[in-house]
Design a protein that fits this description.
The chain is α+β, with helices and mostly antiparallel strands. About 40% of the residues lie in helices and about 25% in strands. The strands form six sheets. Strands 24-23-27-21-20-7-22-26-25 form a nine-stranded antiparallel sheet, with no helix packed on it. Strands 10, 11, 12, 14, 17 and 19 form a six-stranded antiparallel sheet that branches. α1 (about 1-10) runs antiparallel to α6, α5 crosses α6 (about 100-115) and α6 (about 100-115) crosses α8 (about 135-150). The two termini are about 40 Å apart.
């Protein structure tokens, strides 16, 4: 817009003048950015540390090869959301003799033709036209220009219409709403021709209002609004009181599972005493994400892997100190009902680990990496994994089932693969043989086919534990090609399979007696957190380490920025259990303080100070320049 105005005000572009004026303008943007350095730099560091490769893989060829696309401009609520008149406006500006409009039209043409612009503005993550929403005021300038030029007959109407039709035909080839676009374009062209020949604006204005209203309804009718049920759940004071009352009874800090509305409560903290393992964010600690999806292989009932919802997985909940469990249903094994508010029940589990603990049961990372699922997560329950060469004593209690795999869906079997083609959702019931009421059932299999998005996602739910595989082409694909389930003891398996095609292979089932893991916490030395002094970025507590050569593991993802003090003395820390904060600790009673200082915070403060100084200097200089200009003007008037 600044360049647009410069070209409008200056008949000739002088390179030096152009650069100086825009540097001055840029400085007015740079100063507030510098002032915000204390916030922006730590945020940038978090982004750089948390950036995973997007699951929406885009080839360089796809980005750089010119490809006329209408999607950034029309209809979609994730775009500028305009109508076909914007295409006419862009072409009109390009063929205009006014260089400032020609420039702006070329900018929009580049957006239309080169996907790489959209990719860059999306932070090199994916193609999403919502980044062009701020361009709407500029688009309106072009539309106003179009109507004025047609009214004054300053445009070449034949070139305008022929070029628009050619561009529209090419662009419609890959545009999903091409039928609506063609109707829109025909009506708009009729209105433009009436304006051009009869100098009557009214038909075009009426057409634009009708088209805008129609497309707005078509686009927004699909919008899923938040239901009253979800709102009532998120702001339910009864649930908040349940959490507050139960957590107050404990002299230590534990985490809470809330399965009442898993997805919608991922980022919802009801009470200051509620701690969670969940979040929904496009940026996630790399270590935690790696552990959650690729080591723990937790079930994923969501359409992407940026959503970490509360789950019923008994082993995961033990490891992460999920003592409290909110649900409207029955809780998993190990949990006992403590209190209830209407249909919401609060369960607690005394078998879970504390958020930090010490143990001399150690396993080398090298040995750990040799273990496959589910033996690896059992090893993490019993040991602290460190990146050292040590001898490891590990004997599994997991029993692999070698019995026949049941085929309740009557799937076709080819080369040991189960093939299903379901036209609608199906439900099956399977009664287990040799059922043991204390055994966890672990199921794992491969999903070798991704369904077309016209059909939808494929999903299998077993006893309310669901796994989903996103349909091909979805930009936030969850990559959940391995379905895993850790089920509480149950004689019957209720299996729900969504419609679609399935190719399932490598089905494996295991059993683990819950009594084998129920008391593992007793082999660890518990970290007793001081609830009064643990606030903000500081965790304080005490621990009595009962064995020599122990390590401390904190169930908080490993990252830069921690300062750890044992009895007031700063100590180094390392990555334990593949993804978390840990350090070596001696036998005896210890006071522990864990402090987090965001990386780049110190340099951010320096940058902010520089920004404040720059602002003051700019204000003083600007005031001086204005005073000099006033004196010159006064002097001129006197003369």
């Amino acid at each position: 817009y600044a360049v647009f105005n410069y070209l409008k005000e200056n008949k000739q572009v002088k390179t030096k003048d152009f650069i100086i004026k825009h540097l001055k303008l840029a400085w007015l943007f740079i100063v507030p950015i510098l002032i915000s350095g204390v916030l922006l730099l730590p945020t940038l560091k978090a982004i750089l540390n948390s950036r995973f490769n997007t699951t929406n893989l885009i080839s360089l060829k796809e980005l750089l090869i010119p490809n006329i696309s209408l999607s950034p401009f029309v209809y979609n609520s994730y775009s500028m959301g305009l109508t076909s008149i914007i295409i006419l406006a862009i072409i009109n500006s390009i063929i205009s003799k006014e260089k400032h409009y020609k420039f702006l039209g070329m900018v929009f043409a580049l957006i239309m033709v080169f996907p790489v612009i959209e990719y860059i503005l999306n932070g090199f993550m994916y193609l999403n036209a919502k980044v062009f929403i701020p361009f709407i005021p500029l688009a309106l300038l072009l539309i106003i220009k179009l109507i004025k030029d047609i009214t004054s007959k300053k445009t070449n109407i034949k070139v305008l219409l022929i070029t628009t039709i050619i561009i529209s035909i090419i662009g419609s080839l890959s545009f999903k709403m091409y039928k609506l676009y063609i109707i829109d374009l025909i009506i708009t062209i009729i209105g433009i021709l009436i304006l051009y020949k009869k100098q009557n604006k009214l038909p075009l204005i009426i057409f634009l209002i009708i088209i805008s209203l129609t497309t707005s309804i078509v686009v927004n009718i699909k919008d899923e609004l938040a239901s009253k049920e979800i709102e009532n759940n998120q702001y339910n004071k009864n649930i908040t009181n349940l959490i507050a009352n139960e957590t107050k009874k404990d002299d230590n800090i534990y985490r809470t599972v809330d399965t009442t509305k898993e997805l919608f409560n991922s980022n919802n903290i009801r009470d200051i005493s509620e701690y969670k393992t969940t979040m929904y964010s496009s940026l996630t600690n790399k270590n935690y994400k790696n552990y959650y999806w690729y080591i723990s292989e937790t079930e994923n009932p969501n359409r992407n892997d940026a959503i970490f919802t509360d789950i019923s997985n008994p082993i995961f909940n033990i490891m992460f100190g999920n003592k409290y469990y909110l649900t409207t249903e029955k809780a998993p094994i190990g949990y006992k009902k403590m209190s209830k508010s209407k249909d919401i029940k609060m369960y607690t589990n005394d078998d879970v680990f504390t958020l930090g603990y010490a143990s001399n049961n150690l396993m080398s990372l090298k040995d750990f990496n040799k273990l496959s699922y589910p033996y690896n997560i059992e090893a993490l329950l019993n040991n602290i994994v460190i990146d050292k060469n040590i001898n490891t004593n590990y004997n599994t209690k997991i029993k692999k089932n070698n019995n026949t795999i049941y085929n309740p869906a009557n799937a076709e079997i080819q080369n040991s693969k189960y093939i299903l083609n379901l036209k609608e959702k199906k439900t099956y019931k399977l009664t287990r043989e040799n059922y043991n009421p204390n055994n966890l059932l672990i199921i794992k299999f491969k999903m070798e086919y991704t369904e077309n998005c016209k059909v939808g996602d494929t999903a299998i739910k077993i006893n309310e534990v669901e796994n989903k595989l996103t349909c091909k082409g979805w930009k936030y694909h969850n990559n959940n090609y391995t379905f895993t389930y850790i089920l509480s003891p149950a004689k019957d398996l209720n299996i729900e399979i969504e419609k679609g095609k399935y190719i399932i292979s490598n089905i494996e089932t295991y059993e683990l007696n819950y009594n084998e893991i129920k008391n593992i916490k007793q082999t660890h030395d518990e970290f007793k957190i001081n609830k009064n002094e643990t606030k903000g970025d500081i965790i304080k507590g005490t621990i009595n380490v009962t064995k020599e050569s122990s390590y401390f593991n904190l169930a908080v993802p490993y990252d830069e920025g921690y300062n750890i003090y044992i009895d007031g003395k700063k100590t180094s820390y390392e990555k334990t259990n593949t993804s978390f904060v840990g350090f070596k600790i001696e036998k005896g009673n210890h006071d522990i303080k864990i402090e987090y200082i965001a990386p780049w915070q110190k340099i951010g403060k320096i940058v902010s100070l520089a920004g404040i100084i720059s602002f003051l200097l700019t204000a003083v200089i600007s005031k001086g320049v204005k005073k000099d200009e006033k004196n010159i003007n006064d002097s001129t008037m006197l003369q």
